[in-house]
Fold this sequence. Notes:
Blueprint: E1 12-15, E2 18-21, H1 25-38, E3 43-47, H2 49-57, H3 59-66, E4 70-73, H4 76-84, H5 95-109, E5 113-117, H6 122-133, E6 139-143, H7 152-161, E7 166-170, H8 175-187, E8 191-194, H9 198-203, H10 211-215, H11 219-226, H12 231-246
Parallel strand pairs: 3-4, 3-8, 5-6, 5-7, 7-8
Antiparallel strand pairs: 1-2
Amino acid sequence: MEDASSHVTRDTVSILGIPVDRVTMDEALSRIDAMIASGTPHFVATADASMIVDGVGIPEFGELLRGAALVTPDSAGVLWAANRAGKPLEGKVSGVDLVDQLCARSAERGYRLYFLGAEPGVAEEAAKQLAVRHPGCNIVGTHHGYFKPDEDAAVAAVVAEANPDVLFVAMGIPRQEFFIRDTLPIIGARVAMGVGGSLDVYSGRVKRAPIIFRRMRMEWLWRLILNPRKWRKVLKLPQFVLMVMKGR
């Protein structure tokens, strides 16, 4: 994977040893435009508090995040930690919003997009809904995420045939990021990023948090209300806070 940091001077804040880029949405999109134009593969991460906790607890995952071409801030916890470190961020640059913005860019610039992940049928429905939302959006393929790691190479070969510029992978943290690491040389997408539950949102299977929750930076609570099985992930938020306060 090409490290865009070799071409761009990065302004980052280190949160528990993971560098998070101090970018706005527009700046992140400009960086992604440059990655696509370069013609070489790049890994982009959208970092929430749980991802950073995993990056600390799983050394192999932390190494992967530190090698990413771009790490965007994707939670209120990350914004809080950056502010505490004296390097405040303007706001979130989330995976779910990047999907939407890159679909809009695809309609304007012809970027070839591929949706991989979620339950069977979800990626296809998300593609249909986003094509309606952004007429002309160039979604060149979809594939569900219900396959085993020993099938990764075979799935990657299928995705590679579509020759995507941007690959969205929605298989959960850190499975989606490890899939990208292991298969991006096969797929060759210019940009690959993990986007968690974004395809569920755009398919209509999961309702995004109401604006009041987003303004209060409590989307995590909304997700827990809708799916109590996410309690393990939610518990990583107080763990993250304690780790930051202890300066680990």
